[in-house]
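Hi team,

As requested, here is the filled-out complex form for the ribose-5-phosphate run. I kept the field names the same as last time so the parser does not choke. Let me know if anything looks off before we queue the next batch.

— J.
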Amino acid sequence: MLIIGCSNSRILAKNIAKILKVEYSELTVKKFPDSELYIKFETEIKNKELVFIQTLHPSNEAILELILAAHTAKELEAKKIILVTPYLAYIRQDKRFNPGEAVSSKIVGKLLEIFDKVITIDPHLHRFKSLKEVFHTQTLKLTSNGLIEEFIAKKFKNPIIIGPDEESYQWARETALAIGAHAAIFKKKRFSSTKVRVILKSPIDVKNKDIIIIDDIISTGHTILEAIKNLKIHKPKSITVIGIHGIFADKKIYQEIKKYSTIYTTNTIENPHAKIDISNLIANSLK
Ligand code: R5P
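And here is what came back:
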């Protein structure tokens, strides 16, 4: 097995290779003066099982990098090519919400079907119930739930777990059940990609309690900030935010979230709050 560190996930890739005690090589990715991508393997890949580690944030060039690398690997007769993409981008565009829109998740899925197997962590499966609806290749869906549960259990006694919308409840409820905590859920109305409103579905007493808001993706952060604003009124003892995939695309919102809460995420996407390490989870799936 040869682990290939792609441009978004070099640190993670190196860690995984170290855990598995297998060969590691960095994919060289450069840009030509006109900004076209240049890709080069730095080691012999013929007859090897290649595992590409590449999270999809930022996504657009990272996808093109993978396509160029995967086709090259096939031409150079790699035995098998596996993609580990801890954060699977484009998956939220899972329906034509308005006439003429691209159902991008399916199209990106098709592009990545060149890989013999795709492994990802907590993909945002909402209208799709399984990765089989996105990829016609072998897939494996891992979950960081166990790691998040351990993390919470070490830090908190009797917290209340909050899912900021119905979609996030699959993570919030699972976690709450596993650690024996109360859980509650917000109902979210999305007006645009940058405007949401949330209301608690049923009343819950959060006064003087440690609150943990769990969501799969913190993208702009609007969802989380709205939930925080709603909860703050009821004077909780503390507010913690746990996101699986921490994007933080809106810096102003991010600063506000930081003002009112402590943030933790996994390291599916590198960011200053990535304290929950998923390296072992991935390594175990490759054994
Ligand atoms: C979608 O429903 C997801 O679970 C997240 O709640 C959503 O992607 C967060 O987006 P944003 O941070 O932009 O509000």
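Two things worth flagging: The pocket of ribose-5-phosphate is lined by residues 165, 167-168, 196, 215-223 (CB under 6 Å). Residues 145-267 form a domain with the Rossmann fold fold (CATH 3.40.50.2020).

Thanks,
J.
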